[in-house]
Amino acid sequence: MIKNNENLLSLYVHWPYCESKCPYCDFNSHVNETIEIKKWIKSYKNQMTSMKNELVKRNISFKNLNTIFFGGGTPSLMPVEIVESIITLSDHIFGFCNDIEISLEANPSSYDSKRFKNFNRAGVNRLSIGVQSLNNKYLEFLGRLHKIEDIEISLKDASNTYENISVDFMYAFHGQNLNDWSNELKSFLNANNLQHLSLYQLTIEEGTKFFKDHKNGLINIIDNDTAAEFYKISNELLNDYSFYNYEVSNYAKSGFKCRHNLNYWNSENWIGIGPGAYGRLWTSDLYKNRIEYQNYKNPKTWLSKNLYQTEFEKITSLNNYVSDTDTLSMGLRLYDGINISKLSNKSIINSNSLKVLQDKNIVSFKNDILKVNKKHMLKLNSILNYLINS
Fold first, then answer.
1. Whose CA, among 70, 96, 174, 225, lies 20 to 30 Å from 37?
2. Rounded CA gap, 153 and 241, in Å?
3. DSSP E strands: which ranges in 135-274?
């Protein structure tokens, strides 16, 4: 039995449908189709019940659900009945912490004020809106279906219902002007009272339309120096508006860090339900043995495997090296760093490499807390590789 009775447990709910497929997206998303609501509710319920049985069978203790996150796809397209049923059932199956955070992703092109209110009545208390850009030309380039006016209307309606609103942006991409971005972001922050922002520099992922376009020479990747300048100016501007980095791509006002994502970055337990979702649970001794549960990606396959009983596509026991690498790579994303007591084998960190990075003031290491110094966060992947593989 894990002795710590305060272990955090999160629930991730994947909704696989969108209005259209964005050219940069490599997530498990599909163009919206007709669905049978009762079958989806039953399948989600079966998965939650099965995972509760796994927790009991593997003697994993936890103190109710800490967070729920509806991701996708486009969860704002979900029938409210499904969202409400999942929240009610998850409370019955797992129990809720008193201050549970329940987030739902939304797009400005697939919302209406009534749905925002109905999601809130169902229990959603945090909204994450995929704005992505503040320029119609760039929105078109990114394949988004909304316009600037849709962003303004959706945020106004959301703020009438929710006290915790996050916005997602993509920036530092081919053709984007740095001054445009800076001016647009500043105007946006002046006009809106938000609590959280996620800023992701565009990466070209294999299997996407942008990957094909890049391969065919139609779009370019900006150079590292330009990307660093975008990052630097964004940080400075957001800090001026009381948004502070707590993770390499995430900014929050005081008290509004995304607790669900913190569970990922801190390598806590989470359950993943829905097509393509995956979950990870620590078993026996905390931070020693970890199991990954991977769902079928195709929505119809997922339904057929979960409508009457639960079947995962793959259940994997992760070895210590894989778990430690993941724990380290996720933890170093946080500006507070990682406590290396979470590593089952601390020697995964090359001591000579660590000393070199400390001497260059790239990382700091004190009282078992290892963290990357702020100005070097953009080099995180190369720092991690140097620490582990040197």
1. 96
2. 22
3. 165-171, 196-201, 244-247, 250-252, 269-273
Q: CATH 3.20.20.70: which residues of the chain?
A: 9-263
Q: In this structure, what token pair is assigned to residue 389?
A: 């593989």
- Neighbour tally for 380: CB within 10 Å: 14
**How many other C-beta atoms can be found within 10 angstroms of the C-beta atom of residue 144?**
23
For residue 192, report the phi and psi dihedrals to the nearest 5 degrees. -130, 140
Q: What is the CA radius of gyration of the chain?
A: 21
CA dist 323 and 49 (Å) reads 26
In this prediction, residue 5 carries a pLDDT of 40
Assign 34 a pLDDT band (cuts: 50, 70, 90).
confident
389: CB partners within 8 A, 6+ apart? 350
9-263 has CATH 3.20.20.70 classification: yes
Higher pLDDT, 273 or 154: 273
In angstroms, the CA 313 to CA 205 distance is 23
| The model's pTM | 0.93
**Is residue 118 exposed (0-12), middle (13-18) or buried (19+ Cβ within 10 Å)?**
middle
Q: Are 125 and 148 in contact (CB under 8 A)?
A: no
